[in-house]
Amino acid sequence: MRLVVLDMAGTTVADDGLVEQAFTAAAAALGVEAGSPEFDPMLAHVRATMGESKISVFRHLFGAEEKAQRANTAFEAAYHDLVDAGHCAALPGAAEAIAELRGQGRKVVLTTGFSRATQDRILDALGWRSVADLTLCPAEAGRGRPYPDLALTALLRTGTDSVRQIAVAGDTGYDMLTGTRAGAPVVAGVLTGAHDEARLRADGATHVLGSIAELPALLG
After folding, report:
1. Do 145 and 38 share a structural domain?
2. How confident is the model at residue 17, as a pLDDT?
3. Phi, psi (degrees; rounded to nearest 5) at 193
4. What are the phi and psi torsion angles at 51 (to 5°)?
């Protein structure tokens, strides 16, 4: 495995409910209050599609592009406020795992379903600007998860020779679908985020790990 494509929130970065809190604020900005009959099905969709590009989620929920963009703007503002307030931390062993993977001679790419602005906010909060070889968001790859674009863009941008040299790791079913659709032979689910082992395996996980800290040993 010459290239390791890692998710951020829930995989290498603790989520601790930040996505749901930011979504609650975004829904309120569009007149959907927490506890209303409309809200619960929307939150269930957000949970089911964790890992997907956030603007795609809002397009599904709110339909009209103008509403989706308003929701996305409100989501990003709320998420940024949470990060700025100190509610952002690396998962235990994540930075060490990334360093070990790179020490093994592998390229490491961090990917997300967030916008570039939100991804950069997280990287800055953690001091992670140089932790990986490359960082990618959906807008830089064409489409976000569950499409293979993020993994394949990582392959192209790092000069990796073959999809058979890619390992993908994440905490959601959409991460698993991205890996399998990209042709990666190692698609590892981790149990530190949104989805359980059954969902990860149903969407194509070849391995399920307790956390990203176990990945260097698996590949080593």
Report:
1. no
2. 85
3. -135, -130
4. 105, -25
- 49: pLDDT strictly greater than 90: no
Question: Is residue 170 located within the same domain as residue 212?
Answer: yes
For residue range 99-132, what is the model confidence (pLDDT) as tens digits? 999 999 999 999 999 889 999 999 999 999 999 9
State which residues form the domain around 187: 3-15+89-219
Full 3-state SS string of 38-86: CHHHHHHHHHHCCCECHHHHHHHHHCCHHHHHHHHHHHHHHHHHHHHCC
Please indicate, yes or no, whether residues 79 and 93 belong to a single structural domain of this protein: no
Q: How far is CA 216 from CA 2, 142, 145, 171, 212, in A?
A: 12, 29, 24, 16, 8
Give the whole-angstrom CA distance, residue 203 versus residue 59.
Answer: 23
The HSE-up count of residue 203 (CA atoms within 13 Å, CB side) is 28
Tell me which of 12-16, 158-162, 206-210 is least confident: 12-16
Q: Which residues in 67-96 are b (16+ Cβ under 10 Å) and which e?
A: bbebbbebbbebbbebbeeebbebbebbbe
Q: Which two tokens stand for residue 29?
A: 């900005």
Do 198 and 141 belong together in one domain? Answer: yes
131 — phi, psi (to 5°)? -70, -30
**% of the chain residues with pLDDT over 90:** 84
Output the furthest CA–CA distance in the chain (Å, rounded).
52
Same domain, 78 and 103: no
- How many domains, the chain? 2
Distance CA 36, CA 176 (A): 32
The C-alpha atoms of residue 63 and residue 116 are separated, in whole angstroms, by 23
